[in-house]
Amino acid sequence: MKKYFLTVYAKNGEKLLDEAIEAATDQEAKAFGTARLTEKEFSEHTHRLISPAGSLLLFHR
């Protein structure tokens, strides 16, 4: 399992969510991250999901 990082920001720059996600693949991490954003009602907030290699997998501004 690899560790991915999901971060959500408020308009003022405050971090609303900053958590690590463990997943076997990038696709699994993206699916989990998307579900987590929906669950927390953060889909329309600025957010990003970063892979262990530093790749940006999800981004919304």
Automatic annotation (TrEMBL):
InterPro entries: YhzD. It comes from the Bacteria. It comes from Fictibacillus macauensis ZFHKF-1. This is YhzD-like protein.
